[in-house]
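Colleagues,

For the teaching module next term, I've prepared a clean inverse folding example: a structure given as tokens, and then the sequence designed for it. I'd like students to try predicting residues themselves before seeing the answer, so please don't circulate the second half yet.
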């Protein structure tokens, strides 16, 4: 049976909710659709934010033939079949969901068909395409970033479905879905099938039931990786290994796990044991080289090591505090003695004048003198 989320999928931009920065009047996708401009692009954003829906609206409005593949299960043969199919002069749009799951060889195979215009590619991903899509392919695609849906967006989508519920249940559902429309719609559909009324209690019961299992792009995906990171932060290898095993068993992308470990090595271990970053990077390389199932052993090796490292978040905290000041104060004037005097005029303006290599005087801009970002000096 067709899922409710698919049944009520918007067919036009007028019905589409959210992503105003892309589909609002005068915005890039809105303009492209109105001008019937055919090109390749990548939609990067969290799950349930409209990537598939936008791809279908785009192709439909351009009168193109729409092909949909999932990179999890598709291969070169599937792409070749689409390329060879006679479309009677109609443009072809290939929507490749989870494009980050295509390996380099598969992306290389796709490249010439995108390059010569035989197909317009729309890739969808929850991962940073800079890391997951090969440069030649990415250079031929424009990247559009989608945001998590706002509470207002979620309320509008829930209202459209038409299920009766009180304000308390709606607010709870919006908080639980965390900007993921598909998660909210699926939750409502399952609850309506299990219970006569939709309340906070029945929604919670549905969430805990067997009807909602681990979804690699849903809430459980983020809950599990969160538990995994927090277990390593607390130096609990048993818990971290358990959550690692859960993700591997569920078919999680091992590179997703390894990437989070690289971030963890700098964010949570940092200067306490700088070589942790070296280990984490080597684990990531091993995952890329070995692949599943054997790379699970490499991941376990890395997890135990990172768990047992001393923790120090001082560099991370200092960077976040500095970033806060950058956003608050903007580009403050750099002290003259720190500027390069590359021309005669610059020298006359005192650029570089008074600079001392090992001065103890603060090199921060004047408005930030005395700021102490790094609380724990190394």
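(Answer key — instructors only)
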């Amino acid at each position: 049976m067709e899922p409710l989320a698919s049944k009520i999928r918007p067919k036009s931009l007028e019905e589409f909710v959210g992503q105003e920065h892309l589909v609002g009047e005068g915005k890039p996708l809105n303009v492209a659709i109105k001008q019937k401009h055919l090109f390749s692009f990548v939609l990067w954003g969290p799950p349930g934010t409209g990537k598939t829906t936008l791809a279908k609206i785009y192709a439909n409005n351009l009168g193109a033939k729409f092909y949909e593949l999932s990179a999890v299960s598709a291969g070169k043969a599937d792409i070749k079949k689409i390329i060879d199919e006679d479309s009677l002069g109609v443009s072809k749009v290939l929507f490749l969901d989870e494009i980050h799951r295509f390996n380099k060889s598969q992306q290389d195979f796709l490249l010439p068909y995108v390059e010569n215009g035989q197909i317009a590619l729309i890739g969808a991903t929850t991962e940073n395409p800079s890391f997951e899509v090969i440069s030649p392919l990415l250079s031929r695609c424009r990247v559009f970033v989608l945001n998590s849906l706002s509470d207002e967006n979620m309320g509008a989508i829930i209202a459209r479905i038409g299920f009766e519920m009180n304000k308390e249940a709606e607010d709870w559902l919006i908080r639980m879905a965390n900007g993921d429309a598909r998660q909210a719609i699926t939750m409502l559909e399952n609850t309506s099938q299990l219970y006569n009324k939709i309340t906070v209690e029945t929604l919670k019961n549905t969430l805990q039931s067997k009807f909602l299992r681990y979804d690699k792009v849903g809430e459980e995906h983020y809950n599990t990786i969160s538990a995994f990171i927090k277990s390593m932060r607390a130096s609990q290898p048993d818990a971290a290994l358990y959550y690692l095993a859960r993700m591997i068993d569920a078919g999680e992308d091992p590179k997703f796990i390894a990437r989070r470990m690289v971030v963890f090595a700098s964010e949570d271990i940092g200067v306490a044991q700088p070589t942790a970053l070296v280990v984490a990077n080597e684990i990531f390389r091993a995952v890329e080289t070995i692949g599943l199932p054997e790379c699970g052993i490499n991941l376990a090796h890395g997890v135990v090591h990172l768990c047992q490292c001393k923790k120090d978040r001082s560099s991370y905290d200092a960077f976040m505090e500095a970033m806060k000041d950058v956003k608050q104060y903007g580009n403050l004037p750099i002290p003259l003695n720190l500027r390069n005097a590359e021309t005669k005029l610059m020298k006359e303006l005192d650029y570089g004048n008074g600079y001392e290599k090992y001065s103890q005087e603060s090199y921060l801009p004047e408005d930030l003198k005395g700021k102490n970002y790094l609380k724990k000096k190394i």
